[in-house]
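Contributing: when you submit paired examples, paste them exactly as shown. First protein:
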Amino acid sequence: MGALDGKVAIITGGTSGIGARTAEVFVAAGANVVVAGRRDAEGQSLAQAIGATFMRVDVTQESDIKALIDGTLRKFGRLDCLFNNAGNPGRMTSIVDLDMAHFDLVVATHLRAVVLGMKHAAPAMIRQGYGSIINTGSIAGLRAGFSAHSYSAAKAAIIHVTRCVAAELGEKGVRVNSISPGAIVTGIFAKGAGVADAAADNTADGLKERFAGLQPIPRAGLPEDVAQAALFLASDASSFVSGQDLAVDGGVLGGSRWSQLLKNRAAMAEELKARAR
């Protein structure tokens, strides 16, 4: 018996990376999954491979999100989980060089899309008296210095609006939580560097060695890590968890790597001893 047997879940940004792996995990756990994304060929291929449904959706368009929710309800009769996971990279520029058109696009793709997803999923979940909404945040929304200004600002807002909506919908039996990934090997980093979507997806594995040393746990974060966190939040195992942000970051928010701290302290001690001579 799977953790999501018979449940219906929508995953936006589902054609690659975290979204695609979460779709695979949810289907394996027994869910009826609707994969939503902009890339039709990739979405259709994934859906056919795992036994899911694909819907082409631009999350910056409210009409598309409404059609996604309505179409899912027509096909399956209910909605148990919405994973608002669509995203795009911010541009690493100084605040003085910020392109406001790109800033608006990042905010629309992340924050506005999350709000729209919750807006249109909430009525069905309220009628049911249950449901789980999961929003993708980021450690960049919790600490400065991890990503672009636009991306970081949007993610910080997602984490807070998650708490705000959780306070409202919890009384109706609907849980709302966010997941804040750390450095996860996906194509979004290559996309941020200007690589086209399809090619960017093929660069992810090359980041494993680079990301392995960024956090106390000495390996790179994988889409699987976030997918398993989403599975927990979508399932009844988390029925008393709401308004929370779950960092899936290998411990990076907890502090520096202990081994590096010891090296730095030892070097400092030697330097101080030399000065004292």
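Second protein:
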Amino acid sequence: MEFIDYYKILEIDKHATEEQIRKAYRKMARKYHPDLNPNNKEAETKFKQANEANEVLSDPEKRKKYDKYGKDWKHADEFEKAGYGQSSGTRRPGGQDSSQYYESDGDFSDFFSSMFGSGRQQSSQGRFRGQDFNAELNLKLSDVYTSQKQTLTVNGKQIRLTIPAGIENGQTIRIAGHGGEGMNGGPKGDLYLTFVITNDTPFKRDGNHLFSDVEVDLYTAVLGGEITVDTFDGKVKLKVAPETQNDTRVKLKGKGFPVYKKEGQSGDLFITYKVRIPRNLSEKEKELFVELSKLSKNGKQ
């Protein structure tokens, strides 16, 4: 199996933090998402690679195994059980010490082949892991604002799972043991489920934060007042300060989108005021605006 550099795929270095990994993955997922690159096989491949890289590097245990065993990280438990990869040298299946050392980023394929069998000649004796399956689940943004249960049918089998609130478009989760059957007693493969989320709301989502434009009439913007705005889970009243300018942004803390797998935590909602200029003015209103303009000019002299 060819080695895949997950760090290179996400364009980060090996010392990247969890936050840097998350941001890099979101950037790549947006860039290569199939919805934005229809009929683009290269983009589809890069999208799948980004999901695979995120699945490994965002999990501390998997990342540790990947950093140590490279492309054979999935077999780390077998290596550790056999005593391989220890700093004092390797141990062969019989307990005898070996003078051969394996570096942490070395290639364990030859060892694995000799221990578990590989190739056509040994296929009848070796234990092989089943094939991984990939599937997509289409949801609406309003669906993933709260956690929900779903029943999926994959290869004729029903799978019940709970989808945590806050899952993102393009995010992939692994459902262990729901892939293809193993060979010669080998373990089943996994199911990789990618979420395709359509925004059915007036809000724009960016990670855990939501953004919305709200119209404010000219008089309220100048004199100040109170308005009612929509949030994802209801309406709230806001006080508009006097002399509020167009494109003023206010933050409603905790009124954004739920944080994935962190119950009780949410991002923020950012409201941008769009000052609405009045139309169809009466003659009297025009006269008052002319008078106001004169007063304003005289005050600046």
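If you have annotations for the second protein, write them as plain sentences, like these:
The longest strand covers residues 209-217.
Residues 84-124 have pLDDT under 50 and may be disordered.
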